[in-house]
Design goal:
The complex is a heterodimer. Chain A is an alpha/beta fold. Helices cover about 35% and strands about 25% of the residues of chain A. In chain A, helix 14 (about 365-380) packs across helix 15. The chains are: A alpha/beta, B mainly alpha. Chain B: It is found in: Cell membrane.
Chain lengths: ~500, ~325
């Protein structure tokens, strides 16, 4: 791929990016969020047709403008969201052979089930994947679904296989199985392009690396020549320092305590406490149970059990309604799905959790008062919006997140639980959000901050609980630990 | 994008926006002008009252449906609930000789039970509202039919025992089904629900739940409580629709409420497009119901056979939906 550029309204997503890889090698493509890795791979797989630049395969120009084009050149992609590409109530075999059924039937009208399952099983056997062809996809684990998608790719003409963050949701064992499969494909001459955020695992299977930053190519190198530290530096560019607010923490007595939090195998007996004015980090990799713990504490999971103490009093929070009334607030991870009302106005979103304050007798909403509070919050948070009537859908991710937080600031809770609050947020807004959280702590609020970004945890918290497999494995003091130590416990390691 | 191109685009968008906002009202206006010039009696006072009167029962039932739509639900059982209320209230008068107060009270209470059943099933089994209430629609229809033994109820009817029914329908009850009361009741209900949905925090919560139930839940809103409330309101309004229907014809016909379901659905969805609301709303539903009835009324006057009416109604609904959904895709 040479000189690839692509722009979306308001964003130059890729500028003049060169990328090349070879058959039979695994190529790591990495970069921070928003660096343009996924966009580049979408260009390669034909998801966009308005890019500029050239793509060559075997030295010959390849005109890829649609997914169909990409497939005829043998380029297959397995996206992170495996469920969007599979049909849950069909069998593994049908899912693998789906392209054949759609495009390969020619004039035939009847499906030959025996040959479908036979061929699908042959592919699975070749890949040494132990999933029966006749099993329904909805009964599979996430890792198995991924394997099925890879099998589908391989069953077609597959010369280059793009794996977009395949290991993010997988356990260690599942990841190992996936790598086994990747090595097998490599040996069969397939070129692998591997997108991941987890640096250590890249060294296990990748041969080359391309690092991107802000839509540009930064470096392309043989992976063995680039130590992990150098990779991180290239990814981050300028050092992150100065991003986090300086805090002089005045930490008071214990304000919030949770004991024996359980949620059906996802959270296994967690106990924790947060002091007033303290920011406590919940560290751990994706899938460690941080989100589940946050939801369980807030009463958002019907299967969760917990004993909560807030301000010295027992708090019953079997539903978010009860939790919010008791003085808790949760800023959820999936902002668009859980945090905001995209088709509604900024004002409505801002007062969503505190409407009772702005309504009088007979539940009548006092619009002026509501408007005033919302405008004030818009100014305080620096939300970039034309006015309070603008629909939240039209604002940027960072501004949406500020609104999701502002909603709870107006509600004036005692305990704030943040679940990955800076996910998908631009750098400027990130700094604003850190400042905001520091400000909350200085007002004596209890803050629980869940994040899988180690630098963030190190930068903003006073104390850290490291989660692994639904339980707290270790409690650390931020001033006396390091990213390496957190990472070690996050991966289930123990100090010898 | 060049400057000229973007102005052209925004002009187009402006036209679509205008059509979206005022399309339904313009349609009504055009229809009035059209029918007014094509027929002699369309704009007569008595005919205008006639249109409002025939809109009223549909409107009341559709307003209930609108409330269930506001929480992201869909109460398909409103027609059957109206049938039950219709049969129950008339039977209380005719079979049991009850007073108007008892008749209305018992009927409304029973409708609350109906709403409770709907809400319980929808909330607890987490089945799509439309499917669950499709099932209860049949059940309630069956209950109404079984209760009336598959026959209509009227004064002086012959009972299974061979005697004549002795109860009478109170005159006060009958007047509920005549103008001006029937129209006043409709307008009061529209106004109350409009105020409830737009100006109180409860209505705001309902729209939030309809917009994004998960975000509403995580904002600390008692989602189940409001969904329950919505289904109770829906059932009670459907019941009132059935009661008014009984008052208007002074008898209970077999399955009298069922035909109102589809008109109510159409009115509520046409209502989405009124003034660009883009969501279920009481005033829009009223406009939707009136639009449908202007069409029926005008077409009848122009001697279009009644059995062809559904073609027109369906087409209008399709048009309103198209306008609403084209915009929401932007």
């Amino acid at each position: 791929m040479k000189g690839i550029s692509i722009a979306f309204p308001g964003v130059q997503a890729l500028s003049d990016v060169d990328f090349h890889t070879e058959s039979g090698r695994a190529h790591a493509l990495i970069g921070a969020n928003g660096a343009g890795k996924s966009t580049l791979m979408k260009v390669l797989s034909g998801a966009y047709d308005h890019y500029t630049g050239e793509i060559e395969i075997d030295g010959k120009p390849a005109n890829i403008r649609s997914p169909r084009d990409a497939k005829t050149y043998g380029i297959q992609i397995v996206y992170q969201e495996v469920d969007t590409a599979l049909i849950p109530y069909l069998t593994v075999g049908e899912n693998i052979m789906i392209e054949h059924t759609i495009h390969g039937m020619k004039g035939k009208q009847f499906v030959n089930w025996r040959s479908i399952h036979r061929e699908a099983q042959a592919v699975l056997d070749r890949l040494k994947v132990k999933v029966p062809s006749k099993k329904l996809v909805q009964e599979l684990t996430l890792a198995e679904k991924q394997m099925v998608l890879i099998a589908r790719s391989v069953s077609l003409d597959c010369r280059f296989l793009v794996l977009d963050e395949p290991t993010a949701p997988l356990s260690r064992n599942e990841t190992e199985a996936l790598f086994e499969l990747v090595r097998l494909l490599k040996s069969q001459g397939v070129g692998i392009i591997f997108i991941s955020h987890r640096l250590p695992e890249l060294y296990e299977i990748c041969d080359d690396i391309t690092i991107m930053r802000d839509g540009r190519l930064v470096v392309r190198e043989e992976l063995a020549r680039l130590p992990q530290q150098a990779v991180v530096e290239h990814m981050l560019g300028a050092k992150l320092e100065g991003q986090f607010p300086h805090r002089t923490s005045r930490i008071g007595e214990i304000g919030f305590e949770a004991r024996n939090v359980f949620d059906e195998g996802k959270v296994n007996g967690v106990s924790l406490s947060v002091r007033k004015g303290e920011i406590v980090g919940l560290a751990g990799l994706v899938g460690a149970g941080k989100t589940e713990l946050c939801r369980a504490l807030f009463g958002a999971s019907e299967t969760a059990r917990s004993e909560l103490v807030l301000g010295g009093k027992r708090l019953r929070a079997r539903s978010p309604h009860e939790a919010a009334r008791g003085g808790m607030a949760l800023i959820p991870e999936e902002r668009r799905r859980e945090g905001i009302f995209v088709d509604e106005s900024v004002v409505l979103n801002m007062t969503a959790a505190s409407l009772a304050k702005y309504s009088g007798a007979g539940s009548w909403i006092k619009r002026k008062l509501e408007r005033f509070a919302s405008d004030q919050m818009i100014r305080e948070l620096g939300v970039k919006t034309p006015d309070g009537n603008a629909k939240v859908r039209n604002l940027s991710g960072g501004n949406q997140q500020k609104i999701a937080i502002g909603k709870w600031l107006l509600a004036d809770a005692d305990v704030y639980i943040f679940d990955e609050p800076t996910k998908g947020v631009d750098v400027g807004a990130k700094r604003d959000i850190y400042n905001l959280i520091a400000e909350l702590a200085s007002r004596g609020k209890c803050i629980l901050y869940a994040s899988s970004e180690m630098p963030e945890i190190m930068g903003i918290t006073d104390r850290i609980y490291v989660m692994y497999d639904g339980a707290i494995l270790k409690e650390l003091e931020t001033a006396r630990t390091s990213e390496e130590e957190i990472m070690l416990y996050s991966t289930g390691g123990v100090m010898s | 994008m060049s400057g000229a191109e973007s102005t052209r685009l925004s002009k187009n968008a402006g036209a679509v926006q205008f059509l979206y906002k005022y399309g339904t009202l313009i349609t009504i206006l055009l229809l009035i002008v059209f029918f007014g010039t094509m027929t002699d009696n369309f704009l007569n006072y008595s005919n205008i009252i006639n249109i409002l009167r025939s809109s009223s029962i549909v409107t009341i039932i559709a307003i209930g449906l609108t409330v269930s739509l506001a929480v992201g639900g869909f109460d398909l059982s409103v027609g059957s609930t109206a049938s039950i209320a219709n049969a129950l209230v008339i039977s209380l008068f005719v079979w049991h000789g009850q007073s108007i107060g008892v008749g209305l009270l018992v009927t409304v209470l029973f409708c609350l039970v109906v709403g409770l059943v709907n809400a319980f099933l929808v909330i607890n089994f987490k089945i799509q509202d439309m499917l669950m209430t499709l099932a209860t629609m049949f059940v309630f229809q069956g209950i109404a039919l079984t209760y009336t033994r598959g026959a209509s109820i009227s004064e002086n009817m012959i009972l299974p025992s061979g005697d004549f029914a002795t109860g009478a329908i109170p005159d006060a009850f009958g007047s509920l089904g005549k103008e001006p009361w029937i129209i006043i009741i409709m307008l009061v209900i529209v106004l109350l629900v409009h105020i409830f949905l737009t100006y109180t925090k409860h209505g705001r919560y309902m729209y939030m739940i309809g917009g994004n139930a998960e975000a509403a839940k995580l904002s600390g809103i008692a989602v189940s409580k409001y969904r329950l409330t919505a289904y109770l309101i829906s059932a009670v309004l459907a019941g009132i629709g059935g009661i008014i229907l009984g008052a208007r014809v002074e008898m209970a016909e077999v399955n009298a409420g069922s035909p109102y379901l589809m008109d109510a659905v159409a009115a509520a969805f046409i209502g989405y497009s009124v003034l660009g609301a883009g969501k279920p709303n009481a005033l829009g539903t009223l406009v939707g119901a009136i639009l449908i009835n202007i069409l029926s009324n005008g077409l009848v006057m122009m001697s279009v056979p009644y059995y062809a009416m559904d073609i027109v109604k369906g087409s209008v609904l399709a048009l309103a939906l198209a306008i609403t959904y084209i915009r929401s895709r932007r």
